[in-house]
Write a structure and sequence with these properties.
The complex is a heterotrimer of chains A (145), B (177) and C (650). Chain A is mostly helical and 145 residues long. Chain A is built from five helices and no strands. Helices cover 36% and strands 19% of the residues of chain B. The longest helix of chain B has 19 residues. In chain C, the strands form two sheets. In chain C, strands 2, 3, 4, 5, 6 and 7 form a six-stranded antiparallel sheet that branches. In chain C, α1 runs antiparallel to α2. The longest helix of chain C is centred in the N-terminal third of the chain and has 32 residues. Classes of the chains: A mainly alpha (145), B alpha/beta (177), C alpha+beta (650). Chains in contact: A-B, A-C, B-C. At the A-B interface, α3 and α4 of A face α4 of B.
Chain lengths: 145, 177, 650
């Protein structure tokens, strides 16, 4: 009797599950499957907002995964699928921010910073090399470690 | 001399951004719908009371309606139900229910037992229409104007304050002065 | 009675921290040595009061006192004793108390170490620490008092969040916070130097061990969090670029830059104002992290309950603390010029590259983390940023850094003399490339285009780091602890790069549906599902599945992933089963009952993932060894004595 109670509780737990989303259907075409995996990891679950729809266990995530699968099979491109999702849920559903006038600063930042960093580094290196040329300690043996 | 003030300057900007962020933070978690002021997505779904009849969004053109997404599995919808009955009684705008991923028998029992505030209830068993409307949690309500444009979306339980502040004013635009 | 005692102790601690701050900071410039001396009893008293408060709260937890709201919200009479204690830092108020406790402990440690510092300087350092303590205590008492009572008392508690009922939880926050708070010491040293108007190589030598130690703790704390997420949360991920994860990663990146910048300042008096700025920045990042987690401005699974009023308070604290420090910086930094020079190929150059790239990485993570907030505040709409942004942008600055390490490690100070090392550099590179490509194409047959590159770099780091110790050992030269520590830490980094590369490139993940008796093949492993049975625990019940794993006929393991439901909070957690098999990490997570006796199971085969956390541990050990070098422990070095004399003369 007790065993049954526990097993029944176990089954009842499924309603409140907080577990990894499991998705036991795989697409036959490995290229399509790879795109599916990549896309579902790029889309945010709108209920558990810190998980991708690949990882989220809620129904909405499963529905959205089905959408992705269906659209891939219908031949849509990755970009089309992303835009389809964003048209309904807004940019918030995308983990990869779209490159637009509003997000340009974010995507360009690393490159700009690298260039800026390089310029600064070169300036400092030149300055210090020049100082060494007039360094009164230049007869010192060099330090190591 | 000047460049040593740069860190302080950057920090000051950051502090302003963070301060504004705090002011906005009660809104976090509520996503602004991209469908606002756009055409309401079309749908044609079976009716809950009579599966042979169809609830068609095209047929709803020409008048205001409030689309309410709900389900018997949704705890907060139960809390919202009283408000919906009041809205129905007020008769200002018809309520069209979208029964999201639910069981027909349970939904009918719910409405029989608690009262039916809806003019029609569309059954969205697989959730496709809900996704089209950008629904991500129940309850949600959409106010659609006679031209078929979504003018307001409310996420969460619809309460008296929202009804008065957001929905009523849109139904009755201020008269000419 | 205990809660009131604890509350009273916190109030006393606040007052004493205030006195500690006042006497320490005001005593020095006014020349009042009695005030400076008063810092000691103030600090001692503050520490005792904080310990008392913590002790009271722990007693309330252990004694199941549900008249205290914090205990009622986070504990339960059925909660095992171990978790009743660790529940202390399970939510906002208690974790703040943990911060305050650790700050007091660090302050006491600094006091012990301060005996060889000039007294007024030491007073300033402890005074600044007192100021930080004061701020946190005020925040706690004003907005987050853990001793609030419930009237009438709750009949029982709401239980600790089941996800947090895990040994990993018990140690992750204390160790992580020890790291966060440890950077306050570097911050205090920096402020003391700015207040005094002097910063020299001696200052760097004093600051280095504290900073390195804090860095070691932070490394462990982050690794623990990542490891815990891996085995607790059930989907095999260990880093998600979640805002709160980033909040701990940014101080780590800045802290790494600081550790290296301090080396240049110590050795050659270079980069003084830059080091100062980094010291301020590292702690600022810690404080910013505190703000982000507790104010509700960002969406995250880790966030504590959002409360804008708390956000306002922390922001005010941030503005005063950091704004004050940066103002001091703007005032004093222009005076800190050095005339030392170095060649292009010198060690100093590589430390410069190190700093530039690390700060760029930190800024990038910062931009991505705060982008939603910035975009929203500026009215640019919502933007959402996740791994697809962070991963490539992070690698953009980090891979070059890793490669430069392998060259720079052979460079001498001042005049690099890299020409002498050119053959070593070439040989190590070739050996690394052979091994890297061998692993990529030999053991695993596929990979991303970057995979052999990154694998090569990881191995190159390890080989490059071992060159000098090897050289010294062969010539029977001494191996100072700082060199040993550095070698170990850098090797750890190399291992981490290699492990991350293999995990990212070669992980196999599949969800399968099995009925009892059926088998599946994943990544070369055969899984046979042999049964499912109920399980019970002290405050939960659930089901466990049994899987027999084999590989090519060789039996590997029997694994039992479980699903547990906790009685009180009705939350379901997944206990993943994880096994290590010859470098592969096998992860099994039980899914749903699909009916007809079939269950869904997530199977992951992750090569070398355990090495990631092992590598972090190795880095921390290296840092600890380096921090314990004799140079930092000499009680009376001439430089310190000279500084003490100089101080008394002013």
């Amino acid at each position: 009797m007790h065993t049954w109670r526990v097993l029944l509780t176990a089954v009842a737990m499924l309603a409140a599950a907080q577990l990894p989303a499991l998705d036991t259907t795989q697409l036959a075409d490995p290229a399509l499957q790879a795109r599916y995996v990549a896309l579902t990891h790029e889309l945010r679950c709108m209920q558990c907002q810190n998980e991708s729809i690949a990882d989220s266990p809620v129904d909405l995530a499963a529905d959205l995964r089905n959408q992705v699968r269906g659209q891939l099979l219908a031949g849509k491109s990755d970009q089309q699928i992303r835009e389809w999702m964003a048209a309904r849920y807004g940019d918030f559903i995308l983990f990869r921010p779209r490159f637009s006038a509003r997000t340009a600063w974010l995507w360009l930042a690393p490159g700009v910073l690298l260039i800026f960093g390089a310029v600064v580094a070169v300036r400092i290196l030149r300055q210090r090399a020049a100082l060494l040329a007039s360094d009164p300690d230049s007869v010192d043996e060099d330090l190591r470690a | 001399m000047n460049r040593f003030y740069v860190p302080l300057g950057i920090f000051a900007l950051l502090a302003v951004v963070l301060a504004v962020g705090i002011r906005h933070s009660p809104d976090k978690g509520i996503i602004v719908s991209p469908l606002l002021n756009k055409a309401a997505p079309q749908f044609a779904l079976p009716e809950l009371a009579d599966a042979s009849r169809v609830v068609d969004s095209a047929a709803l053109r020409g008048r205001w309606y409030l689309l309410n997404v709900w389900g018997t599995w949704c705890v907060e919808c139960r809390a919202e139900h009283e408000m919906l009955l009041r809205i129905h009684a007020a008769g200002r705008v018809p309520l069209i229910g979208l029964d999201w991923k639910d069981d027909d028998a349970r939904a009918q029992a719910w409405l029989t037992q608690l009262g039916n505030p809806y003019e029609q209830v569309a059954v969205d068993r697989d959730g496709a229409v809900a996704i089209d409307w950008g629904v991500y949690g129940a309850p949600e309500s959409f106010l659609v104007n006679p031209q078929g444009i979504i003018v307001y979306k409310h996420v969460g339980v619809l309460d008296e304050a929202t009804w008065k502040a957001e929905i009523l004013p849109r139904l009755t635009p201020p008269g000419p002065t | 009675m205990l809660p009131e005692l604890g509350h009273f102790a916190l109030i006393l601690a606040l007052l004493l921290a205030g006195l500690q701050a006042f006497f320490g900071i005001a005593g020095a410039p006014l020349g009042r040595d009695r005030w400076t001396a008063a810092v000691t009893p103030a600090l001692g008293g503050q520490a005792v009061m904080v310990a008392t408060a913590v002790g009271c709260l722990i007693s309330c937890f252990v004694g199941n006192d549900f008249s205290v709201r914090y205990v009622a919200d986070n504990s339960n009479s059925a909660l095992p004793l171990f978790y009743r204690v660790s529940a202390l830092w399970g939510a906002h108020e208690g974790s703040l108390l943990l911060w305050i406790l650790l700050l007091a402990l660090w302050s006491v440690a600094v006091w012990f170490g301060a005996r060889r510092l000039p007294p007024r300087f030491a007073g300033r350092v402890l005074g600044v620490l007192g100021l930080v303590s004061f701020g946190f205590l005020l925040f706690t008492l004003a907005t987050s008092n853990p001793f609030l009572r419930l009237d009438p008392p709750a009949p029982d508690g709401r239980d600790l969040n089941p996800i947090l009922q895990d040994p990993g939880l018990a140690i992750h926050p204390p160790i992580l916070y020890t790291g966060y708070v440890g950077f306050a010491v570097a911050f205090a040293f920096a402020c003391a130097a700015m207040l005094e108007g002097r910063l020299d190589q001696t200052w760097a030598r004093w600051t280095r061990p504290w900073t390195t130690a804090a860095w070691a703790f932070l490394t462990c704390g982050i690794a623990l969090g990542s490891f815990w997420a891996y085995y607790e949360l059930g989907w095999g991920g260990f880093w998600f670029w979640d805002p709160v994860e980033n909040a701990s990663f940014m101080p780590w990146l800045v802290g790494t830059a600081l550790v290296h910048s301090l080396a240049a300042t110590d050795k050659r008096g270079l980069f003084k104002s830059w080091t100062l700025l980094l010291a301020i920045l590292a702690f600022s990042m810690s404080m910013l992290g505190t703000f982000l987690v507790r104010s509700g401005v960002l969406v995250s699974v880790h966030s504590f309950a959002a409360d804008p009023s708390r956000g306002v308070f922390i922001l005010a604290f941030l503005v005063l603390m950091i704004g004050g420090a940066l103002s001091l910086y703007a005032w004093r930094a222009p005076l800190l010029k050095s005339t030392a020079g170095f060649e292009l190929g010198a060690r100093e150059s590589f430390l410069l590259f190190n700093n530039v790239l690390l700060v760029i990485a930190a800024t990038t993570v910062f931009a991505g983390t705060l982008a939603p907030l910035i975009s929203d505040s500026l009215g640019l709409g919502t933007v959402s940023v996740g791994p697809p942004y962070f991963n490539p942008t992070f690698m953009l600055s980090m891979l070059p850094l890793a490669a430069l390490l392998c060259v720079g490690i052979h460079a001498n100070w001042k005049r690099g003399r890299l020409g002498d090392a050119s053959r070593t550099i070439l040989y190590t590179l070739v050996a690394a490339a052979v091994l890297g490509c061998g692993i990529t194409f030999g053991i695993y047959t596929h990979g991303h285009v970057l995979t052999p590159v990154a694998a090569t770099i990881g191995i190159w780091i390890i080989l490059s780091s071992l060159v000098e110790p090897w050289y010294r050992l062969r010539r029977h030269l001494s191996l100072p602890r700082s060199l040993i520590g550095m070698t170990i830490a850098h090797s750890g980094l190399g291992i981490a790069v290699l492990a991350l590369t293999t995990v990212q490139s070669f992980t196999i993940e599949r969800d399968v549906a099995l009925a009892v008796g059926q088998s599946a093949e994943v990544g070369g492993y055969t899984l046979r599902f042999t049964g499912i049975k109920p399980v019970e625990g002290p405050n939960f019940e659930g089901v466990g599945g049994t899987f027999v794993i084999s590989r090519g006929g060789r039996p590997v393991a029997v694994m039992t992933p479980q699903k547990r439901q906790f009685w009180v909070q009705h939350q379901v957690t997944s206990e993943t089963a994880i096994r290590l098999d010859r470098g592969n990490n096998l992860l099994l997570a039980l899914g749903e009952d699909l009916g007809a006796g079939r269950w869904s199971v997530r199977v992951q085969v992750r090569p070398l993932v355990s090495l990631v956390w092992l590598a972090a541990l190795i880095m921390a050990i290296g840092a600890a060894i380096a921090a314990s070098d004799r140079r930092y422990r000499t009680l009376r070095s001439t430089a310190s004595a000279a500084a003490a004399v100089a101080e008394r003369a002013t």
